[in-house]
Each structure stands twice: as C-alpha cells, then as structure tokens.
Amino acid sequence: MNVDNRLQGVFSIERRAKIGTGTTARRVAQSALYYAQEVDDEIILLQGLNTKHVPFGEVEEITKDQLLADYLPMPQLFKEVVGNLRKVQKSVARGDKFRKRGETFTAEYEYANALNLDEQNVRANFGIGLCLLARDETDKARKVFDRIIQIDSAFGQDHKHLFNEYGIALRKKKLIGQAVDYYRRALDLAVDDENLWYNLARAQFEREDWAKCGEAVSRCLDLDPAHPEGKKLLEYLTGKGLV
To answer: What domain range is 140 assigned to?
Structure first.
C-alpha cells in the first residue's frame, strides 16, 4: 500500500533453516512477517511482527529493490497490523494522560492493554513501572524493571525523558541496586554519555559506595570537564575525604 506516495505494508519472506543433527537433519521452510515503511527514496525500514501482528524488536534498513525482489506482499494483513498499531498508540497515550493526573490505577490499565498487544512497548513498560513506583508497589515494580532492562530501545534517545524519569524514581524509592543496574545497562549501549556516568555516580553515592561513586563521577568529568553537577559531587567527595 502507498501512503503519501511512500510504500507501506506487510511483507513475508521464506527462509530455509536446518533442524536436527546427523542422519535426522533436514531443511525446512520458515516464513517470517515484516512491517515495511519507506522513509526516504529507495530506503525501507523493516520490522518483524510479533504473534499479535504488531511490529516489535530491532528495525532493519534495506533498499526498495531488496524488498520487492525478496519479499512477498501480504495486503490482507495490512489493515489488521495498522489497526493494532493504533490500538497500542491510543492505549499508551491514554495511560500517559491518566498517569500525569495521578490516576495511576487507570493509567496502569491502559498501559496493560498496550502491553497485551506489544509486550516490548517502551512507553507502556516505563509507564506501568512509574505507576507501580508511585504506589510503592516495589515487588511488582522489580518485575517490570527486569523486563525494561532487557529492551535495548528503552535506552535510546527517543525515550530519554522517560528513561531519566524512571531512573530518578528508582533512586527516590531507595531501589538503589536496581538504579545501579539500570545505569550500567544504559552505559553498555552509550559508554560515552557523561550524564549516565553522573547518574551512576549519584546512585553509588546513595549506596555509600564511595570508591565506585568516585570512579563514575571521574568518568563523567573525563568526558565533560565542565559538567557542573559532576564537579560539585567530586568536590564534596574529596572535601569529605571519601575518595
């Protein structure tokens, strides 16, 4: 289907995979579904569909020629996929609205509706985690945390505001171990982000692990010697003889 003269649709590709070993080994055909969007001349963004027919996971970039040569259009699924995408987006938007009003139970319900279709939706996972933290339901919040920390896209620039809000909420609720793991996970993906090093230092400060706090704030200042909060923290640590 073309939207604003740009290609958009659902496509499938069949790949052959080897299963079994030795004399029982054989090759079988496996079909995979993808949601494709043309974003620039000849450039297609391709994302796999989950079992609920919602795009999820990593986005791959291919050319339009590759798409048309190797993939089979599945127009009968396009309406369902777009409809599911809209359901997820609307549920998340409603969840955000209720959460900002402080109506955390209603917000959680909306986020859960989104996660029912797309369990890796970043905004819904962050949103439900923030609702649980706001209500001091830390056991449930830990389960959401375990899910978030496995989603690479949760730590990307697109979700930086939510990422920061969630990290602050973990610290305020004294879930310091989770906060440390959270910032370390983010640093796995963005090791040169001085603000992440500062946030890790703050979490280690709350933990009273002065050595690791000093290491983290030093990394922050190596990347940005003028970082104001980092400078204040290091001055405090050295002034108190903690590092």
So the answer is: 75-173
- Which stretches in the chain have pLDDT values below 70? 1-4, 16-20, 22-23, 25-28
Tell me 43's DSSP state. Answer: E
Query: What torsion, rounded to 10 degrees, do the Cα atoms 181, 184, 189, 190 define?
Result: 140
On whether both 107 and 169 belong to a single domain, the answer is yes
- 167 and 81 in a single domain? The answer is yes
**Could you give the maximum distance between any two Cα atoms of the chain, in Å?**
71
Looking at 73, 88, 119, the residue that finishes a domain is: 73
Per-residue pLDDT at 157: 77
pTM score of the predicted model: 0.79
pLDDT at 2: 54
* Residue that the structure tokens 């400078």 belong to: 231
Residues 169 and 82 reside in one and the same domain: yes
Q: How far apart are CA 64 and CA 204, in angstroms?
A: 48
- Identify the domain boundary among 73, 107, 132: 73
Supply 4's token pair: 């604003």
How far is 84 from 49, CA to CA, in rounded Å?
A: 11
**DSSP secondary-structure letter at 224?**
-
